[in-house]
Amino acid sequence: SDPGLVERAAAAKAALGDRVFVLGHHYQRDEVIQFADVTGDSFKLAREAAARPDAEFIVFCGVHFMAESADILTSETQRVVLPDLAAGCSMADMAVLEQVEQCWDLLSDLGIADSVVPVTYMNSSADIKGFVGRNGGVVCTSSNAKRALDWAYAQGEKVLFLPDQHLGRNTAVLEMGYSLDDCVLYDPHKPNGGLTDQQLRDAKMILWRGHCSVHGRFTLENVLAMREQVPGVNILVHPECRHEVVTEADYVGSTEYIIKKLEAAEPGSAWAVGTELNLVRRLAAAHPDKQVMFLEKTVCYCSTMNRIDLPHLVWALEELVAGRVPNQITVDPDTAHHARVALDQMLALP
Ligand code: 13P
Ligand code: SF4
């Protein structure tokens, strides 16, 4: 990266000292990650944000929903900054509050809303987390989805899982023993979600029709081709991948899990990894004694994660040095209160 920008970022960070804390998600660019005080998956970063009450500014190198969660979990005086406001998440955008309320009204009309516990993936807007908190549910991440669902099924008979159909289906079927027939897919763009009343009544798991535009692109064919090309290869994928990909893989887990799995792997072993490219590249560089490959060459970066680049980070830090707070992310107090209930419920999971 541009040496001038590297120097400017370092100088601005030094000038701010302990007043600033920089969080970096694992999918961020190397040029940004080098300035992160801590790196992590979305669960670890939410906890790290909550654990820094002394930092006046949290600069979140990640996407919008993560910065919102950080604002909810930090104190009123702390300010959360997202270096580029265009860093959203296509999956989070697939569940809009009005659509979810419409779905809930439908479940109420059918007389089953009382038996449904809403669970939302961290990758959702604060509005959706607020809805879930208001209705007795919980937030989950890819590292605690099973624990969150165990909790939810202890509260009610059914789950409405938002917004990632794949994480919901993979966890219910592969980790909790539900069948594919226990799951139905609710499409917010179709009348009645594209389902019959009976299907909604019978379902144990109502999956929202959302997916990750990066992980959703890995296919079963990619896995089979990799096994043919590299005999003995270990296939390691994120649970946001499609069900048939996850079923055929050897190991499945969050980004933190993927990192730990490769750290523990035998020297000389071969790994094909199905997750975001910035992370896979860093892992390949970190483990020259192992063969770390990308599961599919045409799947690329998360374009919105990649919006955060060194120029945006330098700009944000220099603004803070100048006494201005750029791109502050704030959640309105009522939404924040209810979202916090659902996030605290997650943080309290056993
Ligand atoms: P985790 O960080 O929870 O593994 O989620 C991956 C992701 O897609 C983040 O946007
Ligand atoms: Fe959203 Fe997928 Fe990008 Fe994560 S990787 S921010 S889920 S689009």
UniProtKB/TrEMBL annotation:
Pfam families: NadA. The keyword Oxidoreductase does not apply. Its main location: cytoplasm. Pathway: Cofactor biosynthesis; NAD(+) biosynthesis; quinolinate from iminoaspartate: step 1/1. Its EC number is 2.5.1.72. Its cofactor is [4Fe-4S] cluster. GO terms for molecular function: transferase activity. The keyword Iron-sulfur applies. [4Fe-4S] cluster binds at residues 89, 212, 302. It catalyses: iminosuccinate + dihydroxyacetone phosphate = quinolinate + phosphate + 2 H2O + H(+). It is found in: Cytoplasm. Iminosuccinate binds at residues 25, 42, 121-123, 142, 238-240, 255. InterPro entries: NadA, NadA_sf, Quinolinate_synth_A_type3. It is an enzyme of class 2 (transferase). It comes from the Bacteria. Binds 1 [4Fe-4S] cluster per subunit. Keywords: 4Fe-4S, Cytoplasm, Iron, Iron-sulfur, Metal-binding, Pyridine nucleotide biosynthesis, Transferase. HAMAP family: NadA_type3 (MF_00569). Belongs to the quinolinate synthase family. Type 3 subfamily. Catalyzes the condensation of iminoaspartate with dihydroxyacetone phosphate to form quinolinate. PANTHER family: QUINOLINATE SYNTHASE, CHLOROPLASTIC, QUINOLINATE SYNTHETASE A. This is Quinolinate synthase. It comes from Catellatospora aurea.
